[in-house]
Structures are given as C-alpha cells and as structure tokens.
Amino acid sequence: MAGNWKMYKTPAETKAFFDGFLPLVAESKHCEVAICPPFVNIPTAVEATRGTRVGVGAQNLYWKNEGAFTGEISGPMIKATGAEWVIIGHSERRQYFGETDATVLDRTKAALAAGLRPIVCVGERLEEREASQTEAVLAEQFNGGIAGLDAESFAKIVIAYEPVWAIGTGKTATPDMAADAHRAIRALVTAKFGAEAGAAVRILYGGSVKPDNVKNLMAQPEIDGALVGGASLEAGSFASIVNF
Ligand code: 13P
Hints:
Elements: E1 2-4, H1 11-24, E2 33-36, H2 42-49, E3 54-58, H3 75-80, E4 85-88, H4 91-96, H5 101-113, E5 117-122, H6 126-130, H7 134-144, H8 151-154, E6 158-161, H9 175-193, H10 195-200, E7 203-206, H11 214-218, E8 225-228, H12 235-242
Helix pairs in contact: 1-2, 1-12, 7-9
Bound molecules: 1,3-dihydroxyacetonephosphate.
C-alpha cells in the first residue's frame, strides 16, 4: 500500500502526518506500506519512520548519477537519504513533463542500479479506453518500457496500473475493470519473462482509491495493492486503506 503525495505537504506537515499515522498502522503486518512525499520531505519522513515497518519513497529520479542537470535528483542521492522506493512513469509525469516509455526504462534501470525499489506506472487515457485501446496502450507502455529490463531486474519492480481517467477524478475503475487490466499486464509479463515472473509480479491499482472502495478492489485476487494519491494525505484515511 503506497501513498503518492504528489506536490503536497511541507516538512512540518510531513512530521505531523507520521505522528498521526504510525500508531494507526503499528499492528499492520499484512502488507508493505510506503509513503512517497516530495523530495524535500524525504529526510523528515525517513527520520519519522525509522524502526517502523513504513517505508519511504521518492516520486521520480533522473537516470544519471550526477552532473550538470539543473533541478534533477539522482538515484544515489535518494538512496543516501534512506529512502527505499521510487515511483517512475506516473501519468502526470508523462502528461506534463514529457516522460516517455524509453525514459521510464532509463529511470527504472537507474533506480535498480542505485538499490531503490521502483514502482513503475502504466495506464490508459479516457479516449484510449473509449476507443477500446486499453490493452494496446498497456502493451505499448510495457513493450516500449520495462520489457527492456533483464529478468533479474524485472523481478525487483512493482507495477502500478493507474487509468488516467480515474486519477483525482473520484471515478474509480470498477474492481472488474481493474482486474481485467491487471490480467492483461500479467499476460504481457508472462509472455516476456515467463510464467513464474507473471505469477510473482505485484500489480497495484491506483486511481481514486478511498477507504470506502479499497475493500472491493482488494477482494480481486489480481489486485495486489494500491497506489493512493489524495486519500494518502490524511493519516486516518490512509490508515483505513492500509487496514482495509
Ligand atoms: P488519486 O488517488 O488522488 O486519484 O491519485 C492516484 C494516483 O495518481 C496515485 O499515484
């Protein structure tokens, strides 16, 4: 269960979140939990979660380790903060910041080289779903991106299926729709990396996951977890999702 805070919260607000959140998930041992705050809040989050089961992640990274790349942050820098995870290829990065499947692959390789655990996002836009292109888009994103990993590297990533039309809109994919997409992604993984990899890969659903819909989503065997935006910003609401 991962929270993507996007561009929300200051360090002080981050500290306040964990003061509220950690007691609510202290007994939650059924899943891995991670919060991915903006870069500047990572040290505060790492400090707050030290000795707990809650991990911390970044929301992006650049694929070079260092250099004259004003405004960018590298994998080794993130790793050095004590963060463990990194979200890659979120649709907002694809839509507003020119992220492509090729750069998703570059970032994923860089994350793994730095010892980070990538959560790689895929998902179709509304017009693509309406044109019955969902599976074709997922195949394109997979084949142009993370299919370029070697099998050993692929085994270390988590995939997040986030239909763009469900993000921040309150329109959740139905559990059946999400499960269909997850099955399509799993089939792509199986075709490329074999049956064992297909069975093992964890696929999170993201897009308007809330305390009141998480249980039905998680009832689908195909859905291994959730990547949560808005509902991860408040301690009580994200704890309810973790403890679905
Ligand atoms: P919402 O949960 O706010 O729809 O955001 C989903 C998301 O983009 C998580 O990465």
